[in-house]
Amino acid sequence: RRFSRCPAITLLDVFQLHARRRPHQPLLRFQDEIYTYEDMDRHSNRAAWALSRRLGLQSSRTVAVFLPNEPTYLWTWLALAKLGCPMACLNCNVRGRALRHALEAAQATLVLASPGERGTTGSSGGVRNMGGLWSP
To answer: Quick one: which of 88, 111, 120, 125 is 20 to 30 A from 2 by CA?
Structure first.
């Protein structure tokens, strides 16, 4: 019954519902930090604002995300979902030809990466480093 709804209920819809109902409830524990729904909503709103205002990111533009498994990954995903941008998830352990292939297959117009991932595609990767934001 849930799947037949039009429009469909997305994970973003579920997140936003929980953020409204239980803003102070823990959502994520990472190392010694605890992030509530409110924290993640605030971080993702800031990220969405920066992506849209500072980079001019528009709905339906695919963004490749090359981030390690940390809270930034979650609020980046939420920010992109709020903007209506498909996210191509890149494995941050992949390098060289496999990474170039994943980038080409994603047909992303922007690559978001953590500072620790800079320069991993090399000069022939076809990706320009912009301080954590890469552009094909």
So the answer is: 88
